[in-house]
């Protein structure tokens, strides 16, 4: 039997099918395996799949063999997750455009993937002032010493300073690249790259040997926002990529903080714009900032031994219907859909909510188990 993660990989090879459409396919059909075997007419029911894209799907799908493709891909890219894998980062899975394949190198910490360890993104200009550098170092150091993982993009400037400061403070950091995880860009950060591999992770949605491309970096920013519970913008001109990250953060329901600067400072114009649009101030007292960030709820697993029946939260009718379908053993997604009589897309969304509440867990092969 071909595992569901092989179909995530196969669908990602078809031109015209991006992360958003993949998410819609998965929600519409329940599994990408089901979508792979759907007819052209059935696929046409999915929003966003136009005539030309459908033609590409039909033509290219016939030449791809998911299981063989997955085996070959593993040989060339030994470490990657798909949304069908239990270790795929939960917070990223909440977004409307999770990467179908997320490659990684370094030291994995499962609590980060499960959303149980807070991660905060720090972004900003490639040409920071002394003011921006000083605050980046202070904030990254404080975050690292208080158990936060610092997420950034390993670019020059603010990104580099945030990674270095977090590691110097003995904390973890994650670098999201716009290249393959084996391609160092900018090259001057080769020593930083090696340090990150021993004190955190390097991740990317691009396979090994992918060179830098100007179109990759704006897309990379959505992953920084998706992994993080909050985004801190240190210094950013009006056309900075950091503002793209902040926009994604707003779309994903993340908190956005900005470092205020002088009205006539070029590197601060983007931050001032964010503040005028409702972003929170990065306050002078770091203890206050840490308190604000600490108030952001985490995804805490509810252990059976500490969650007696009377502590079970009150569920909406839809959530309760899905919970009632579970017995003691793990159930395939299709069986849950059949048992509940609900639409596959609705069941997928409900299962995600139940996962985030710590009531069910996803297993390989699109199977789910009650905790």
* Strand order within the widest beta sheet: 1-2-6-5-4-3-7-8-9
Taken in chain order, the helices and strands follow as HHHHHHEHEHEHEHEHEHEHEHEHHEHHEE
Distinct helical segment count? 18
Distance between the termini: 26 Å
Roughly how much helix do the residues carry, as a percent range? 40-55%
Major sheet: size, sense and barrel closure? 9 strands, mixed
Shape: globular
The residue ranges in which pLDDT falls below 50 over 5 or more consecutive positions are: 300-312
Structural class: alpha/beta
Averaged pLDDT: 88
Specify Rg, calculated over alpha carbons: 21 Å
**Residues in β-strands, percent:** 5-15%
The number of distinct β-strands equals: 12
Summarize the structure.
With 371 residues, the protein is α/β, with parallel strands linked by helices.
Please describe what this structure looks like:
- This protein has a 9-stranded mixed beta sheet with strand order 1-2-6-5-4-3-7-8-9, sandwiched between helices. A 3-stranded antiparallel beta sheet has the order 10-12-11.
- It contains 18 helices and 12 strands.
- The chain has helices at residues 4-12, 19-29, 32-36, 40-43, 51-61, 66-76, 90-93, 110-113, 130-145, 158-168, 190-199, 216-227, 241-251, 269-276, 286-294, 317-324, 333-340, 344-356; strands at 80-81, 102-106, 119-123, 149-152, 173-176, 200-204, 230-233, 255-258, 280-281, 331-332, 360-363, 367-370.
- Helix 10 (158-168) crosses helix 11.
- The longest helix is centred in the middle third of the chain and has 16 residues, at 130-145.
- The radius of gyration is 21 Å and the shape is globular.
- The chain is of the alpha/beta class.
- Residues 300-312 have low confidence and may be disordered.
């Amino acid at each position: 039997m071909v595992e569901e993660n092989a179909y995530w990989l196969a669908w990602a090879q078809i031109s015209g099918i991006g992360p958003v459409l993949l998410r819609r396919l998965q929600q519409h059909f329940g599994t990408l395996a089901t979508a792979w075997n759907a007819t052209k007419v059935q696929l046409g029911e999915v929003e966003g799949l136009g005539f030309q894209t459908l033609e590409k799907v039909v033509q290219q799908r016939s030449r791809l063999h998911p299981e063989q493709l997955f085996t070959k891909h593993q040989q060339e890219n030994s470490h990657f997750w798909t949304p069908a894998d239990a270790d795929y980062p939960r917070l990223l899975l909440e977004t409307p455009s999770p990467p179908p394949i997320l490659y990684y190198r370094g030291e994995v910490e499962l609590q980060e993937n499960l959303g149980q360890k807070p991660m905060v993104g720090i972004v900003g200009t490639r040409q920071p002032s002394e003011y921006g550098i000083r605050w980046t170092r202070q904030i990254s150091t404080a975050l690292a010493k208080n158990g936060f993982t610092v997420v950034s993009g390993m670019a020059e400037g603010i990104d580099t300073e945030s990674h270095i400061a977090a590691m110097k403070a003995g904390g973890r950091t994650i670098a999201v690249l716009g290249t393959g995880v084996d391609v160092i860009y900018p090259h001057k950060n080769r020593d930083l790259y090696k340090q990150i591999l021993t004190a955190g992770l390097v991740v990317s949605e691009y396979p090994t040997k992918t060179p830098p491309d100007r179109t990759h970096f704006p897309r990379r920013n959505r992953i920084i926002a998706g992994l993080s519970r909050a985004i801190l913008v240190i210094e950013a001109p009006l056309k900075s990529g950091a503002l793209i990250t902040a926009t994604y953060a707003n779309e994903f329901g993340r908190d956005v903080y900005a470092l205020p600067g002088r009205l006539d400072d070029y590197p601060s114009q983007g931050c001032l714009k964010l503040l005028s649009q409702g972003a929170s101030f990065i306050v002078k007292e770091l203890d206050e900032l840490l308190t604000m960030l600490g108030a952001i709820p985490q995804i805490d697993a509810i252990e059976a031994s500490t969650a007696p029946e009377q502590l079970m939260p009150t569920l909406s009718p839809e959530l309760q219907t899905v919970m009632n379908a579970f017995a003691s053993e793990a159930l395939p997604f299709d069986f849950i859909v059949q048992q509940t009589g609900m639409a596959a897309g609705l069941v997928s969304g409900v299962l995600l909510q139940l996962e985030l509440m710590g009531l069910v867990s996803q297993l390989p092969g699109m199977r789910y188990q009650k905790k």
